[in-house]
From TrEMBL:
This is Pimeloyl-ACP methyl ester carboxylesterase. Coiled coil: none annotated. Residues 25-274 form the AB hydrolase-1 domain. It holds the Pfam family Abhydrolase_1. It comes from Microbulbifer donghaiensis. It comes from the Bacteria.
Length: 286
């Protein structure tokens, strides 16, 4: 059941806890156009590995209050409040895709409390033109070009969110068709397809707000990957249909202590498939 807490500035943060309530705490940051619900659908599997999976909705996603003009570094401060609220003295962090830099921001904010960072298909700083050149999905390439046209970008994202919210199952089916490499994961079984529907439903609950705010936060993080002190493990698929596999490796090279693992044949969302999920959360458990 989704839980709610008030942040110091009065904003609302929604989050949930999955897996083993007595397991190793891991704060997870979801990716672009996703929500806190993105994960493997079988929570018994997460529980059996001994992980307490703590996932929060970023500003403008689910029930979390929007934060206009937010930066990536701000997420670390929000998660510090969540960690204090849950009385977590020591914990690990994880992130997927655009949630990668969010996870790193937590480690940047609390290096003495974060034991390790585990990322799946993470993006690197978009300030670097070499990074935006590693985008595969045409829609993301277009967003990069419109980054400075804030009103146009928001209008386009609003129109897209309105279309998505009219029929979430149809959107999931259309996404799988548009991204054939990702379709194996999205449509793997009825439980996984239903999870993606719930995930996107929460992601666009506030229409375009969450995806718009994250888009702008992908530039000028407020910290550098070179500032991250805890060790980092990165997993990525060599069949990614959204970003080039070179991007996670590029990020790995910038981190002081990082190790990269390739998932052969895996796509961008493969981290929720059973075999990859076991790898991912086992590493996150530490």
């Amino acid at each position: 059941m989704t839980q709610v807490m008030k942040l110091a500035d009065g904003r609302q943060l929604t989050y949930d806890i999955f897996g083993d309530p007595h397991g190793v705490p891991v704060i997870f940051s979801h990716g672009y156009s996703d929500s806190h619900l993105i994960r493997h659908p079988n929570d018994f599997l997460t529980r059996s590995i001994g992980v307490r999976w703590i996932a929060a909705d970023q500003p403008g996603v689910g029930g979390s209050t929007a934060k206009n003009g937010r930066r990536m570094v701000d997420w670390g401060a929000d998660m510090e409040q969540l960690a204090n609220h849950l009385a977590l003295d020591r914990f690990n962090v994880a992130g997927h895709s655009g949630g990668g830099p969010h996870a790193l921001s937590i480690a940047y904010r609390m290096p003495e409390r974060v034991g390790k960072v585990v990322l799946a298909s993470p993006v690197a700083p978009f300030d670097d033109k070499a990074v935006t050149g590693m985008l595969v999905l045409n829609e993301l390439k277009a967003i990069v070009k419109m980054r400075h046209l804030h009103h146009v970008l928001r209008w386009l994202l609003k129109a897209e969110a309105r279309r998505i919210n009219k029929n979430i199952p149809a959107y999931v089916a259309a996404t799988a068709k548009m991204l054939p490499r990702e379709s194996r994961t999205i449509l793997r079984n009825p439980a996984q397809q239903a999870l993606f529907e719930d995930n996107f439903r929460a992601a666009f609950a506030q229409k375009e707000e969450g995806i718009y705010e994250m888009t702008l936060a992908l530039w000028n993080w407020g910290f550098s990957p070179r500032d991250i002190r805890p060790p980092v493990e990165i997993f990525y698929g060599n069949n990614d249909g959204i970003i080039s596999p070179r991007m996670p490796l590029y990020l790995s090279e910038q981190l002081p202590s990082a190790k990269a693992h390739e998932w052969n044949g895996a796509n961008h969302y493969s981290f929720v498939d059973e075999d990859c999920w076991i790898d991912f959360i086992t590493a996150a458990r530490g």
